[in-house]
Amino acid sequence: MSIISTARDRGKKTQKPNSLVPATRIFSSTAPTPEPLSPAPAMSSSTAPAPAAAMAVDDAEDDQLASMSTEDDIRASRLLDNEIRVLKDELQRTNLELESFKEKIKENQDKIKLNKQLPYLVGNFVEILEMNPEDEAKEDGANIDLDSQRKGKCVVLKTSTRQDPKAENPNEMVTAGVLSSLQNFLRKCLIASLSYGPMPKHIAFIMDGNRRYAKFRSMQEGAGHRMGFSTLIASLMYCYEMGVKYITVYAFSIDNFKRDPSEVESLMQLMEEKINELLENQSVINKIKCKINFWGNLDLLYEPVRLAAEKLMASTAGNTGLVFSICMPYNSTSEIVNAVSEVCAERMEMFQSEHIGDCNGHAANNGVRSEISVAELDRHMYSAGCPDPDIVIRTSGETRLSNFLLWQTTFSHLQNPDPLWPEFSFRHLVWAILQYQRVYPALEHNRKLAKKQL
Fold first, then answer.
1. Which of helix, strand or coil describes residue 153?
2. Same domain, yes or no, for 208 and 274?
3. Which residues form a coiled coil (predicted)?
4. Range of the domain at 180
5. DSSP state letter for 197
6. pLDDT per position in the chain (454 positions), as tens?
7. Are 266 and 122 in a shared domain?
8. Whether the Cβ atoms of residue 419 and residue 396 lie closer than 8 Å to each other
9. Which of 435, 412, 384, 428 is nearest to 207 (CA)?
10. Residue 203 is inside which H or E element, if any?
């Protein structure tokens, strides 16, 4: 029996006779009775009603589901179980990753909180001498202690002023010690990494921005230069740790004598004070075998400053380690003029000692050469015996040399970091060396070409 015939038979069983009740006129009692309507013809099998067709489709689906085997049901159930298991595993993995991200966010927040307590990541603390931990030292801002009698390790460069060391929290002191050790370790790691590239032998600094630093912070006159001296000592030790052999700084220009007399007087007093400190405490200088030179016309200095500078040069003349040259009072024009004058004086002395030519002047130029070679000028420069600077660093973002080492900086790499000199730190020095290493091949190529042309 087919599905269609079954549906037709089912429709016949449920079908009722189609009869109508005769209607009468309500308002007329004499109205004729209408004839009864004839019954409707039976519906054929091809014109089955719509509900019957829908029921037939449902019955067909039920028959199809009933025909499915039990194995197919089991197979479909297993597939669904596997998919559910995979989704559960994926959800669990996502939850684990979310927990991991939460832990990383927490760690980063802790690091950010820690970094806010530090002015820089590395380089603001430096170990440069030995001292007894039991000794008490007074710290004034960024003062440097150079006492030769103290033994043991000491952090001598501070970024803040202690008012009362006894009143400090012991936990804070322990934290500061841990952070200091961490900074020293990171600094040594950075220096070791830098050493794989070409390292500069000579770095020159134009210490610009001391006055602006004090002005921006409403500090007293001369306070910016004192802070700058602390930065100088720290930079000197950083360069020593990196293996830089020569350090030159532009401390005082001849043009600076044109400034206000009170400012010049203050600078001269500061120079005398710091030079005398180095004379009284030479343990660090002798430890690193530092040789100190003063380049410039020392006759222009105040008498006490000049005598102290000459004494310091004499006391370190025998050292063979780091060469630290201080340009004061100096400018490059004066240096070149002085070199030419010395060459001329040397020629005249040679003429007088050897009696070259005759007294009547018959020999051309009396036997004295009129030309001056580059090698002769190099020999009479203040920087004689010192290689040309590889890097010239001028702080405060200025891009001019200000008449500093014009003869020696033809192939030097000029760096102009934005911070003022008292703000200059280890990270700025590292960045300058990285930039130098990047352009080193081009600098060497230009130097070789210049040597071939001479």
1. strand
2. yes
3. 77-111
4. 115-189
5. S
6. 444 444 445 444 444 444 444 444 444 444 455 555 455 455 444 444 556 666 776 677 666 666 666 667 777 777 788 888 888 888 888 888 888 878 877 777 666 555 544 444 433 433 333 334 334 334 343 333 433 333 333 333 333 334 444 445 666 666 777 787 888 888 888 899 888 999 999 999 999 999 999 999 988 878 899 999 999 999 999 999 999 999 999 999 999 999 989 889 999 999 999 999 888 888 778 888 899 999 999 999 999 999 999 999 999 999 999 999 999 999 999 999 999 999 988 888 877 776 655 555 555 555 566 778 888 999 999 999 999 999 999 999 999 999 999 999 999 999 999 999 999 999 999 999 999 999 999 999 998 888 887 6
7. no
8. yes
9. 428
10. strand 202-206
Same domain for 126 and 221, yes or no, is no
Contact present, 394 and 405 (Cβ < 8 Å): no
State how many domains the chain has. 2
Measured in residues, the chain has a length of: 454
Task: Indicate whether 276 belongs to any domain.
Answer: yes
Rounded Cα distance, 154 and 133, in Å: 8
Rounded Cα distance, 330 and 304, in Å? 18
Measured distance CA(244)–CA(200) in Å, rounded:
6
Can you tell me which residue has the tokens 């993995």? 93
> Can you spell out the DSSP letters for 213-240?
HHHHTTPPTTHHHHHHHHHHHHHHHHHH
- Residue 181, in any domain of the structure: yes
Q: Is the domain of 236 the same as that of 256? A: yes
d(CA 423, CA 17): 109
Cα–Cα distance measured from residue 326 to residue 256, given in angstroms and rounded to the nearest whole number: 15
130 and 255, same domain (yes or no) = no
The Cα 237–Cα 244 span in angstroms is 10
10 Å Cβ neighbour count for 196? 8
DSSP H or E stretch at residue 91: helix 70-115
Q: Please list the active-site residues.
A: 208
- Whether residue 323 lies inside any domain: the answer is yes
